[in-house]
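Re-run with default settings, no changes from the original entry. Doing this only to confirm the output is reproducible before filing.
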Amino acid sequence: MLGILPGIVGVIQAAEAVKLILNEGKSLAGRLLLFDALEMKFRELRLRRNRDCPADGACTLVKGLIDYDQFCGVAPAPAADVVAAWEITPSQLKDKLDRGEEMTIIDVREPHEWQIANLASYGARLIPLGQFPQHLNDINPADDIVVHCKVGGRSAQAYEVLQQAGYTRIKNLKGGILAWADQADRSMQKY
């Protein structure tokens, strides 16, 4: 029943619009038409103007346009995806690798995660986060380094360790291997 109700009301509104455009017939101006679809009954109420009411035009309170989104409770659209200076997006990393730029990619996940999906084809190395501090001497501080994990949390910790050790050319892969699978290599298995 609810599905046909907007159609019926829409037809009535269309008829009213045609009457107003052609200036023919008696419009519903000043009247309220009530429709009961279950009983198939129409009722009409006459409305009298209230001269003290701002909506009648005698006393205009509207001084400008309102903020429609705020009035309707609509949340503003999310801002564009912001990338921090210490991060690199999967598409940015892929572009660099495709151009042949030398990058040291370090995966700080666990070995069982590495077996599911990895960037070994780009020369990535696995150094689990728990073993990361012991392997700092294996990482050349002159290299451009990208650390990553599953979603970015553990690699952010690895980033901090590298930064505290004096490394300056480091980036964290924003969104980790899951973002890489979504944005750079859709054939990669996700877990």
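The chain has a mean pLDDT of 88. Strands lie at 31-36, 41-46, 87-88, 104-107, 125-126, 145-148, 170-173.
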